[in-house]
Design a protein that fits this description.
The complex is a heterodimer of chains A (297) and B (209). Chain A is mainly beta and 297 residues long. In chain A, 9% of the residues lie in helices and 56% in strands. Chain A is built from two helices and 17 strands. In chain A, the strands form three sheets. A ten-stranded antiparallel β-barrel of chain A has the order 1-2-3-4-5-9-10-13-14-17. In chain A, a hairpin with a 4-residue loop joins strand 2 and strand 3. In chain B, the strands form four sheets. Chain B has a five-stranded antiparallel β-sheet with strand order 3-2-5-10-8, with no helix packed on it. A three-stranded mixed β-sheet of chain B has the order 1-6-9, with no helix packed on it. In chain B, 13% of the residues lie in helices and 33% in strands. Chain B has two helices and 14 strands; from the N terminus they run αββββββββαββββββ. Classes of the chains: A mainly beta (297), B mainly beta (209). At the A-B interface, strand 11 and strand 12 of A face loops of B.
């Protein structure tokens, strides 16, 4: 049962690794051809929307990051940059919130269009991105309003992850000098909150009365401005494997709303009333500040 | 090495062959039975879920009963009977066959008629037909999943229904309006598809606000 080729001794692996690093080192010394980066960031994300009074129909925007304990939502980013040439950079970024699963993936491609100075250049970046945000305790609307009823029979903590996938296009300016590089850009993003369904089941305390409220949110694309600023400081300037520090900031701003269809079933499924509700658009911002390390090779 | 491989293959085939007849044959034919008895118990539906109650006192807005239709022969004991086996030969199985026994009613429920023996409110006098004032729920759906069904839907779901093990049609009936009298009692008639009507009367219920 001997299978040659499968049992590679660790020493041979080390030799292969050394050879690979040595080869990339040698090629980097001549002409920069391909560059890869892996980064790990911790980000603080704050979602802001102007709260509406809890009158009339429910507005789900009110419950984004509602009653969050901290001032901002922590997000761990793990990303990968691939620059096959000096002009092109492809980025894949994974984001993980407190649920400890990668719920965010941003993919982008950047191209440097022109050099505007010795150290500066400008380019265009396009990509797809999703900014998940927690929708917390939306049942509070019913708990406060529907008195005389057990307003939500689901006793669990009500939380949904709301995704906001979109396409973005952004011109940027890049400044690179020695070990420092700065990248600033501002552009447009078109996105829509992913539809989600919510169910509220109610019963009269001390009575037979039962009611079910079903919410089905609808797509509503919205135009958002997106602005970013990234700084990278490499701790060593040597070609090959090098380590650096990174910091970034991002701001999304738009007028957003979450329209939905509400179906109320009273006593039986046949006795239903459906309404389409479109809350008014209101200012919505996502601010994110991040810092971390980058490994370039 | 070749001998080792051959042994492994033989063992694998032998185990695969063992698996096939080792599966339990649970697809037996349905046993037919008749609904000829009824049972009514009180439900306490004042909390989140309805619960069987020995008390004859109910909240005015939570008058509810659990109805059972079954065969007086006692077919629900059928499941407890030992499994039939072939004469002189019983198949080897990996475990005992925990089969559910399919049962089907000869005649299904077609209508529920309910008459109140006490006035429910000023508008609903004693002797009135009040089946439209009741909502229903299947016993398996008591855990608060969704809203009620209508008595008509309850009847239609009994058609061609296969009952496993028990052969009991069990459901809850929930009065929608609040009872304004001090007492409540209902006569319930269950009409089957073969024309037979089963009649039963609830206990005398004392209403508390």
């Amino acid at each position: 049962m001997n299978r040659p080729g499968l049992n590679i001794p660790p020493s041979l692996l080390l030799i292969l690794l050394w050879f690979t690093i040595g080869t990339s080192h040698a090629s980097a010394q001549s002409v920069r051809q391909e560059q890869m980066e892996i980064y790990l960031h911790y980000a603080c994300r704050e979602t802001y929307r102007s709260m509406q009074l809890q009158e009339g129909d429910i507005d789900f925007l009110n419950y984004l990051d509602y009653k969050a304990d901290t001032g901002c939502t922590g997000v761990v980013h793990v990303g990968f940059n691939l620059s096959p040439s000096e002009k092109w950079t492809f980025t894949a970024d994974l984001g993980m919130m407190s649920d400890m699963r990668f719920s965010q993936m941003n993919i982008s491609a950047s191209r440097i269009v022109n050099n505007t100075g010795r150290y500066t250049s400008w380019g265009l970046s396009a990509g797809i991105s999703a900014y998940p945000v927690y929708l917390n305790e939306f049942n509070e609307y019913h708990l406060l309003r529907d008195t005389g009823l057990m307003a939500d029979l689901d006793a669990n903590y009500r939380q949904e992850t709301l995704y906001d996938p979109g396409l973005d296009l952004m011109p940027f300016l890049l400044y690179t000098k020695n070990r420092l590089s700065l990248k600033a850009g501002t552009g447009l993003r078109i996105s829509s909150f992913m539809p989600f369904n919510l169910l509220i089941r109610q019963k009269k305390d001390g009575g037979n009365f039962r009611r079910e409220i079903r919410y089905e949110t609808l797509y509503k694309p919205a135009l958002t401005s997106i602005s970013t600023l990234h700084a990278t400081l490499m701790l060593s300037d040597k070609p090959g494997l090098s380590v650096g520090l990174q910091a970034g900031a991002q701001l999304l701003f738009g007028m957003r709303s979450i329209p939905y269809e509400r179906t109320i079933l009273t006593w039986t499924a046949g006795n239903r009333v459906t309404d389409k509700i479109t809350p008014g658009s209101k200012p919505f911002t996502v601010t994110e500040v991040s810092a971390g390390i980058v490994i370039r090779f | 090495m070749k001998v080792f491989r051959k042994i492994l293959i033989i063992l694998l085939i032998a185990n695969l062959v063992r698996i096939i007849p080792g599966c339990c044959d649970c697809d037996g034919p349905a046993t037919f039975f008749s609904f000829n008895k009824t049972g009514i118990t009180n439900l306490d539906n004042s909390g989140i879920f309805p619960q069987s109650s020995a008390s004859d006192t109910m909240r005015a807005a939570a008058v509810a009963f659990e109805i059972s239709l079954y065969d007086s022969t006692g077919y629900w004991y059928y499941a407890a009977l030992p499994a039939k086996s072939g004469a002189g030969f019983s198949r080897a199985t990996a475990m005992s066959c925990d089969c559910a026994y399919p049962m089907q009613a000869r005649a299904h429920l077609t209508n529920i008629s309910i008459t109140t023996l006490f006035p429910i409110s000023d508008q609903i006098a004693a002797g009135a037909e009040v089946s439209g004032l009741f909502a229903a729920s299947l016993r398996g759906n008591y855990a608060g999943d969704g809203v009620y069904i209508t008595p008509e839907m309850l009847c239609s779901q009994t058609e061609n229904k296969i009952y496993y093990d028990s052969g009991i049609e069990s459901f809850g009936l929930f009065l929608k309006p609040e009872v304004q009298s001090a007492n409540a009692r209902f006569v319930m008639r269950f009409t089957l598809s073969d024309g037979i009507t089963l009649t039963d009367t609830t206990a005398l219920i004392t209403i508390r606000p």
